[in-house]
User: Fold histidine kinase from Novosphingobium clariflavum.
Amino acid sequence: MPHQSTAPPTRFHRSIFARTVLWAIIIAAAITACLWLLTDATIRNTNQIALERAVDLDLAGMVDIHASGGREELARRIADRIALQPRDGQLAHYLLADTAGRRLAGDLRQWPGLHAGVSESGPIALPGGSAFARATQLGPDLRLLVAHEDHDIDALRRQVALVYVTGGLLATLAVALIGMTAAHRLRTRIERINAAFRHPDEEALARLEKGSLDRDEIDELTRHSSEALARLGRLAGAQRETTDQLAHEMRTPLMHLDNRLVKALAAAPEAETAARIADARLEIRHIVRMLESLLDIAASQARRGDRHGLAPVDLSALALRLGELYADSAEESGHTLKLAIAPDVMVEGEEMQLTRLITNLLDNAFKFVPVGGTVELRLAPGPSLTVCDDGPGVPLADREKIFDKFARGSEPGTQDGAGLGLALCRAIAERHQLEITLLPSTRGACFKVAPQARR
Assistant:
């Protein structure tokens, strides 16, 4: 996998904390808008009620004037009220008319569509806007209409809207600031746990234990994570110690047995006995190699996903060095090795394990390619490491199990070895967050090592 930062950047759309803050901002803005709509409706309704009461009160006063002073007195009072109002922004309008609609007094020119007999009320159109009016019948041939404008309501609504917009913005900004601060603290605490899982070393565990103060659920999760990682570390250490001890206990008697066989050969036994001793020594070496491979596989699998101990490795230089080494031996065995190595391909890994990965793939290719055949080693950025040959290839029946331990080909001539080479390659690849696959090919076998696909 490419050399990169160990802590992946937190994407906004993937962060639960960022989404929580965003939803809090949206909800705060929505609540502010709903409160404004409710307030605006209340202002409109209250204003309408006040306007209706003002019209009714004014109309009642006019009816009393007519009842006490007659039509002439009513016309004079209407003229006085119109004259006392400012000419710009006049609020009250009057119309005293006969049953035919002819104007007798007032500033309105024509009778609107309101029925005076039932004291109908409603909005009417004016040259400068609209007003609320009520009509009433004063006598068989006389009717009166009183209308009031409301120029102050729009100004009041604008002021209230400005207050809500300003308050809503301040509230939204406060929610955003507080939410982002809290989200940053929570994300930092969660990232401490994730960092410990990515790199479960002593330093990360110490930071994890230091941040666990039993204040809330995250601290409890932090403490449990620290204890679990420490337990896993102890189990892994015990497992490695056990396997190392087991390997030592098995390898030592085998080597003692090999030394005895060497002494037996030094005694110049008969030819048949010497041949049997030599075969026994080969079997001992085969068992030792198989034991070492099994231990390497177990160690790689146990450390899968563990970034501790990885360092930048120049994979291009490593592949080129191994390729040149194998090219000399390939020429001697009658094979051809082609190299296509891209420069400056870097990975984070263990150089010794990556060396074993490449050498196992090359050994596997040369093992099955007949004399005169070709093996190709390619490396491209990504990284993408490919080892292909033009040998007999892998039978369809063996493709599914070829990376299993002790899996050997079913075709004649493929039974040599312990069947651990490709299993070790897969374990090493997974240790480095890579995956090895057998590519479809019309001829020979083609193995590719590339970063694991995101699932």
Remarks:
- The chain has a mean pLDDT of 80.
- The first helix runs from residue 16 to 84.
